[in-house]
Write a structure and sequence with these properties.
- By secondary structure, this protein is mainly alpha-helical.
- It contains two helices and no strands.
- The longest helix is centred in the first third of the chain and has 14 residues.
């Protein structure tokens, strides 16, 4: 989990927190207030998605 937190910090430092909000949720159905959201399978896919937002 620590690696994921570090990755989120790097991504936020690159794009800023004004454009996007990266939220880690364990049960999407319980957090509808964060919709719309999307799922990625790899770290690279996450990086690409964030940079293209």
């Amino acid at each position: 989990m620590a690696a994921f937190v570090a990755l989120k910090k790097v991504l936020i430092s690159k794009v800023g927190s004004e454009r996007i909000q990266l939220v880690t949720i364990s049960r999407p159905s319980a957090h509808v207030e964060y919709e719309p959201y999307s799922f990625v399978k790899t770290e690279e896919e996450l990086k690409e998605a964030v940079m293209n937002m």
